[in-house]
Input
Amino acid sequence: MSNNMQGTNGKAQRAGTRANGDSSGGVQSVDRAVRVLEILAASGGSGVSEVAAELEVHKSTAFRLLAALEDRGLVEQNSDRGKYQLGFGILRLASAIPMRLGLVRQSRPLLDELAAQIGETVNLAVIREQYAVNVAEALGPSAISAQTWMGQLTPLHATSSGKILLAHLDRAQRDDVLEVAGQPRLTEATITSRSALEKQLEQALSDGYASTFEEYEVGLNAVAVPVRDHTGGVVAAVSVSGPAFRLVPDQMREVAAALQVAGSQISRRLGHLGS
Output
């Protein structure tokens, strides 16, 4: 009964979304694909007709959805008269979650320690498509407690974490990301020239840290260093940000040195054995 109620509520919500004009054919297809995965998870295996009945669509539509998911390895046909079940591609996607959770868990005490030491906000960010997303945060005693970056998607070209993450992408990946993201001007100090940004990224690789001076927000400066996993690859960036009148350019090298110690400690917790 609860499954039917959930299905009814879900249909009502989707109908409301369409009524408000917020849906499109593409969004509807995504919604249906997710529903297929939910149906297979609940049933353990369903045929095309059963999926079509649950979705209230024609069998040809259900077949196209299942075929697209099968191409991605998210569903597969079993030997039970062609019924579909969840595929191993689901495990591939889910395996990324423990890694992210492990990253945050291993970083947390060191972020708190660094925030107390420096007195400013400390963030841990990972790259997500064309953004840096902050997945953990620690506020120092001098930090403005009303300001939080947790969960925010921030531009790669205008943030210290973003620059570090960009710097450690290979050239082809970097080109692809920046082609999509661009380098929009956010403040008068934002770097909008690709050649100027490339020079900063090369400098970040040489120095081991990247900094920004009021490039994302007026009055906000920041510095970031990389975090590596057991393979040596950069999986995150740890940063310190604070008001421009406190976190001044002359302090950056000193703050970066403390950050590099914390970044190395987090990296070792993730299995990195290098210096």
Remarks:
- Confidence is low (pLDDT under 50) at residues 1-23.
